[in-house]
From TrEMBL:
Membrane-spanning parts: 6-27, 100-117, 151-169, 181-207, 219-237
Lineage, uppermost ranks: Bacteria, Pseudomonadati, Campylobacterota, Epsilonproteobacteria, Nautiliales
GO terms assigned for molecular function: aspartic-type endopeptidase activity; methyltransferase activity
GO cellular component, one term: plasma membrane
Main location: membrane
Domain called Prepilin type IV endopeptidase peptidase: residue spans: 107-208
Record keywords: Cell membrane, Hydrolase, Membrane, Methyltransferase, Transferase, Transmembrane, Transmembrane helix
EC number: 3.4.23.43
Protein name: Leader peptidase/N-methyltransferase
Species: Lebetimonas natsushimae
Amino acid sequence: MENEWIIELIIFIIGICIGSFLNVVIYRVPKSENIAYPPSHCPKCGKKLKPWHNIPIISYVLLKGKCAFCREKIPIRYPVIELSTGILAVLIYKKCGVDIYSTITFIVFALFLALSMIDFDYKAVPDSLNLLALTLSFFTTPEILENFKNALILMGGMSLIRYYVSYFIKREAMGEGDIILAGSIGALLGIKLSLFAIFIASLIAIFPSLYNRIFKKDFELPFIPFLTLGTFIVWYFNDYFLNLWSKLYG
């Protein structure tokens, strides 16, 4: 279509605006703050931001990454989250088009992104966002009951692994947040593809985990970011992974 790029641009703009809202969620929800009030303000000086200070990505560039009032440095993650959400919106559109199911899928992945950033910061995630993602994941396809069943199976399997591994290593092997997220993955992907997603997430996490253990002496690695990345890779290339499953297991 000749106007396809215009549609993609509009979707990208909508995506980065949602990414701007995600930044508010990521910052405020773990602190149990209201996400709507008070309006956006600098966390350092407390000054209320003007509308032109809140333009996704553009404001960061124009302000040279600093608060317009106190010149406090603005974390680079803010435009990165906005850009990532915009790209996410376009990729989902290119794969699924626009309908109620693709819209819900986008919201679920946007929540995954927020949960990933919160997990990086706190090594824990708020149940409110995690359960919202789980609930919405049931409605990402018309097969709602099947999605619900797959979520239960994945959560049960992850819980079983958690109890056994925790017993043998004498410490918590997996957080409850990971188990809830596993339910969302099961609903999104089904059982077969979920196994690929968890495997890919584990592979990606190997080197960061080794780095944490060797150089930081930290044995706790936030796993939700890797689960999110693994899930999106498998979801986006689901046909490839389904064919791979057929070749491996018939």
